[in-house]
Design a protein that fits this description.
Elements lengths: L14 H15 L1 H6 L5 H5 L1 E6 L5 E4 L1 H7 L3 H4 L4 H5 L5 H12 L4 E8 L11 E12 L5 E9 H20 L3 E5 L5 E4 L1 H7 L17 H17 L3 E9 L6 E12 L5 E10 L1 H26 L6 H12 L6 E7 H4 L15 E8 L18 E2 L6 H8 L3 E3 L7 E11 L2 E11 L7 H38 L10 E8 L9 E9 L3 E9 L4 H19 L4 H14 L9 H5 L13 E9 L4 E7 L5 E3 L6 E2 L17 E5 L5 E5 L11 H11 L7 H11 L9 E8 L7 E6 L4 H16 L6 H18 L4 E7 L2 E8 L19 H8 L2 E7 L2 E9 L10 H7 L2
Antiparallel strand pairs: 1-2, 1-5, 3-4, 4-5, 6-7, 6-10, 8-9, 9-10, 11-12, 11-16, 12-13, 14-15, 15-16, 17-26, 18-19, 19-20, 20-21, 21-24, 22-23, 22-25, 25-26, 27-28, 28-29, 29-31, 30-31
Helix pairs in contact: 11-12, 11-15, 12-15, 15-16, 16-17, 21-22, 22-23
Length: about 850
């Protein structure tokens, strides 16, 4: 039969022995093996059939598998010539000769064609190939017989192809593949796994996960393997971290696990498919770090520098970096910078004194080293010259600080804080053990964060310097202590805004005027900072100057308006007149605006004249009455120009309380202005209390500690000049009035027990009344006022102001005003609605007056 099919060969391969033994076993078991073999066995897959040939050359046994394979039932096949049973007719002659050789004791293997059974629908079966294994044997009687095993060639080749493909996939897979048995030992490993962990695939047989992973990780993975083996539930993308044996290199894998079953359905192990994701994890970590760094920078831009306070800015930096960037952080600033030195230390030798201004920790309040105590916030210290921190300050470059033995800190960066090429301090960032050490990207980020904070700190330093200067200037221009005024009890408060707000232009003033009158002023320059404080100083000086000219309140504000319009020009106040002549639609970008209330109080009449330039209205509290805001025409702010100011005259009852204030007292971002005004009016409930207590009550009630703006509060209680402290006479326009004026003055001073002033007063009254007769008009009025000083006033209807001149030796007159200037403490002249008033002032006896004796004064004039 070897010549029948072209592929038939005689086999001498030693492996055929095993194959023959399998065939003999199959023939011996017969159909019983087929029936006991479970579905899905190897025999079911490769379609193995068997039959045997008797000594007579006929089939004497025909298995069920042979029936299925060839479509010939056993009842027909048994007793047939095996050649006729399934071989084509044209091949039977050669087969019969071959069969004779087999029965003669020769083994044969070959491939023969056959016809598969017809299909159920009647369609003729396809042609197939069968590989036949014929093994000679003998019966119990010693007769020659044969056992035949038949395999479907096409099925066998398909299985061989699948096995080859599976072997290629397993061996050539770029993923590490393990077959782990039920004892959690490696049964098989592929080349990829071996290339990572070394050796050949066979070298890994019998290993466990403890041979590849640290103890803790190995325990976790082992528990997972047992769970997969017991439950059959697959695991997808389990991350495993370990080291390559013999190396400290950390590797990361993504592992998929699933249970593997045998042909009987019984679990035989676990398939481990691992992907090395070390590079991917590194790339993902880099991307995450980049995102984190960008987020930190965005957060730093939003949170650092919101305050113009040095310490607050330092704390804002630490709020950003802890714990998002590091576990511990400190900020040290140069002591000289904090104490207001003009120039920070900058690039020094790094050993200058610093102050710890901020500290933050995400773990606990621990020092940066394990041995030294931490520097407390607020403490002044310095770094040793050879230390990395001093080197960072000296070179303006970041430095890595080595960790000390026993320290919780494993990685520290010392980063100089550089602003405008100047080192202002040092920031230190530290990570404790268990955190990833700082890398190059971390160092670059730390430098950027420190630089941003340094710029904000330097800006805060410059602001603090300007703020302090403006505050010093502002306070130097305010009245010292509680000023005194005739006929008024005065109390005042000035509260500057906090350090986070710029100095404003608020001011108040109390100006004594002739005739025991007092000018009360409260103003507010719009804007903040040093320039606003300077503008306030200029306006306050201008107010005092204009007040001493004894102008009416509306005239004072008109002059101030012109001055304010000139403050923003390069020429300053000198340009006021020119600015006032500019068109109303001129560019006002350089013009300072201010609001102001100017009031003049006369202690003799208790009448007060108000003029307002866009300021909040004064508040008046009469005894037994609720507080009310005076109806004073608001007017336009100073600096707008072109609008006249109006005056309002109010008679103030004895004991009344008058309050002038700036908007910082009543205006806040927490409530509208109207609510603040009503709250202020409601706080003035007891005008009879001491003024200091009233001021404190108002400030506490209105909760003025927000520090949003400067606050100025000026309160005055009316105490009119008593009637017996005033002497007032009208004299006709005749020469006898001079002598009568002297008599009135003498009698009044004697009644006041002021005999030491009689001679001087008589002489000066005589001079002023004589001048009124010579140069004035209308009837003459003489008034003496006694308060803290003695004031004498001479009134007439003439508008020509007296002018002091130096008389020549030959002149008979012209020395009267010189005499007044020599003998009085002060003198002057002011306009009135119906003429003018010339006055002089004498101090009361009992003190060092420094006044000249009348006789000596007369002699000095000649």
């Amino acid at each position: 039969m070897s010549e029948i099919p072209a592929k038939a060969t005689e086999s001498e391969d030693p492996s055929d022995g095993a194959r023959n033994q399998a065939a003999e076993a199959a023939a011996a078991t017969g159909d019983a093996m087929w029936q006991s073999s479970p579905p899905g066995s190897i025999y079911d897959y490769i379609k193995v059939a068997s039959f045997s040939i008797s000594p007579g050359g006929l089939v004497d046994q025909w298995s069920l598998r042979a029936e299925q394979l060839f479509g010939v039932p056993a009842a027909r096949a048994v007793g047939m010539d095996p050649i006729e049973a399934f071989i084509d007719p044209d091949l039977r002659e050669r087969g019969q000769r071959k069969m004779a050789e087999i029965l003669d004791g020769r083994e044969w293997t070959g491939v023969v064609p056959f016809r598969m059974p017809d299909r159920a629908d009647g369609t003729r079966g396809e042609e197939g190939l069968a590989e036949v294994y014929v093994m000679p044997t003998r019966t119990a009687e010693g007769d020659k017989a044969a056992v035949c095993i038949v395999v479907d060639v096409r099925t066998l080749r398909s299985i061989e192809t699948d096995l080859a493909a599976s072997q290629a996939i397993f061996g050539q897979s770029p993923f590490g593949f393990l077959l782990i048995d039920i004892d959690l030992r490696v049964r098989r490993a592929n080349e990829r796994f071996a290339s990572i962990f070394g050796g050949t695939p066979d070298d890994h047989r019998g290993n466990g996960v403890h041979d590849y992973l640290p103890r803790g990780e190995a325990e976790r993975v082992s528990a997972t393997l047992r769970r997969v083996l017991e439950s059959g539930q697959s695991i997808t993308d389990m991350h495993v971290t370990g080291h390559v044996p013999g190396s400290e290199e950390r590797r990361h894998w993504s592992v998929n696990l699933y249970r593997v079953h045998g042909g009987t359905g019984r679990p035989i192990g676990i398939a481990w498919l691992g992907t090395d994701i070390t590079a991917r994890r590194a790339a993902a970590r880099e991307a995450a770090n980049a995102r984190r760094n960008l987020a930190l920078l965005n957060e730093a831009g939003a949170r650092i520098g919101n305050s113009l306070d040095l310490e607050t800015t330092a704390r804002e930096l630490l709020d950003v970096v802890v714990p998002g960037f590091c576990d511990l952080a400190t900020v040290d600033l140069y002591q000289g910078l904090l104490t207001g030195d003009e120039t920070p230390p900058g690039l020094t030798d790094g050993s200058a004194e610093l102050r710890r201004v901020a500290f933050a920790s995400a773990v606990s309040d621990v020092p940066f080293t394990g041995s030294a105590d931490p520097v407390a916030v607020g403490a002044v210290h310095h770094f040793p010259f050879n230390s990395p921190c001093a080197d960072a300050l000296r070179t303006a470059r970041p430095q890595h600080v080595p960790a000390e033995d026993g320290s919780l800190v494993q990685s520290t960066l010392a980063v100089p804080m550089v602003a405008h090429d100047t080192v202002v301090g040092l920031a230190r960032f530290a990570r404790t053990k268990g955190s990833e050490p700082f890398g190059d990207r971390d160092r670059d980020l730390a430098v950027e964060l420190a630089a941003r904070a340094a710029v904000c700190i330097d800006n805060a330093r410059l602001y603090r310097r300007e703020h302090e200067r403006a505050l010093i200037l502002q306070r130097s221009l305010l009245p010292p202590g509680d000023p005194e005024a005739s006929g008024l009890d005065i109390a005042c408060r000035y509260l500057p805004g906090n350090a986070a707000t710029e100095v404003g232009g608020d001011w108040f003033d109390v100006i004594e005027l002739p005739g025991h009158r007092t000018a009360l002023v409260v103003g507010d320059v719009m804007g903040r900072g040093l320039r606003a404080a300077v503008a306030m100083g200029e306006l306050r000086t201008a107010v005092r100057t204009l007040a001493l000219l004894d102008l009416e309140p509306a005239e004072v504000l008109s002059a101030l308006d012109e001055i304010a319009r000139g403050l923003g020009t390069p020429g300053g106040v000198q340009q006021a007149t020119r600015t006032a002549r500019q068109p109303r639609d001129a560019d006002l970008s350089e013009v300072y605006l201010a609001t102001c209330v100017y009031a003049v109080y006369d202690s003799v009449t208790r009448r007060c004249t108000f003029a307002n330039a866009g300021h909040l209205p004064p508040v008046l509290v009469e005894p037994g009455e609720p507080a009310l805001m005076l109806d004073v025409p608001p007017g336009m702010p100073l600096g707008v120009g072109g609008e006249p100011f109006e005056e309002v005259e109010v008679e103030l009852p004895e004991g009344a309380l008058l309050a002038l204030y700036t908007d910082g007292l009543v205006e806040s971002r927490d409530h509208p202005l109207d609510e603040g005004l009503q709250a202020f009016v409601g706080a003035l409930t007891d005008p009879s209390s001491p003024l200091e207590d009233v001021c404190d009550h108002v400030l506490n009630t209105l909760d003025t500690h927000h520090g949003e703006d400067d606050i100025a509060l000026l309160m005055a209680r009316v105490q009119g000049l008593p009637a017996d402290s005033v002497g007032d006479w009208t004299l006709p326009r005749e020469p006898r009035s001079v002598g009568r004026a002297r008599e009135y003055a003498r009698a009044q001073l004697v009644s006041w027990d002021l005999e030491p002033l009689v001679d001087t007063t008589e002489l000066l009254v005589s001079e002023l009344v004589t001048n009124a007769l010579r140069y004035g008009e209308g009837e003459i009025r003489l008034r003496l006022l006694l308060d803290r000083t003695l004031v004498c006033e001479v009134w007439d209807s003439g508008f020509v102001q007296p002018r002091r001149r130096r008389a020549r030796d030959t002149d008979e007159g012209g020395r009267g005003l010189q005499l007044v200037g020599l003998l009085s403490a002060a003198w002057g002249s002011r306009r009135t609605p119906r003429g003018k008033t010339v006055w002089f002032e004498l101090p009361l006896p009992g003190g060092e007056t420094g006044l000249t004796d009348p006789a000596e004064a007369l002699l000095s004039l000649f």
